[in-house]
Task: inverse folding
């Protein structure tokens, strides 16, 4: 994969993560209390590895879901596997990654997965 593209996707993921966390901080007083005095960047670092259990309790499931996807994608970047489908190992098209930087599956596998879960 093109290194410039990879760097751009990694930056989008970090930006998305930061904006979710900032949004949570604005909307959630518990979260705000826990992270009081931290800058959004500190919070991102704190929340990095596995998001702190105490913080998880204060988050909406939608936000957690998205943060987890973003985390997984960032891990894939570090492992040098970003852009490869976690199911079939095929390359995920760059257009799809641009639309959804945290996409972990190709369209085919994602579709199968969604059908299975329905
Ligand atoms: Zn696939």
Result:
């Amino acid at each position: 994969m093109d290194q410039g593209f990879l760097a751009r996707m990694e930056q989008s993921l970090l930006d998305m993560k930061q904006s979710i966390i900032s949004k949570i901080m604005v909307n959630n007083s518990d979260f705000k209390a826990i992270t009081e005095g931290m800058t959004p960047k500190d919070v991102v670092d704190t929340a990095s590895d596995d998001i702190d259990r105490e913080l998880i309790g204060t988050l909406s499931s939608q936000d957690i879901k998205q943060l987890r996807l973003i985390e997984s994608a960032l891990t894939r970047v570090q492992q040098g596997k970003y852009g490869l489908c976690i199911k079939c190992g095929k390359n995920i098209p760059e257009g799809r990654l641009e639309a959804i930087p945290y996409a972990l599956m190709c369209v085919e596998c994602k579709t199968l997965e969604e059908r299975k879960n329905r």
About this structure: Residues 3-83 form one domain. The longest helix spans residues 3-27. DSSP finds seven helices and no strands in the chain. The pocket of zinc ion is lined by residues 85, 87-88, 90, 105-106, 108-109 (CB under 6 Å).
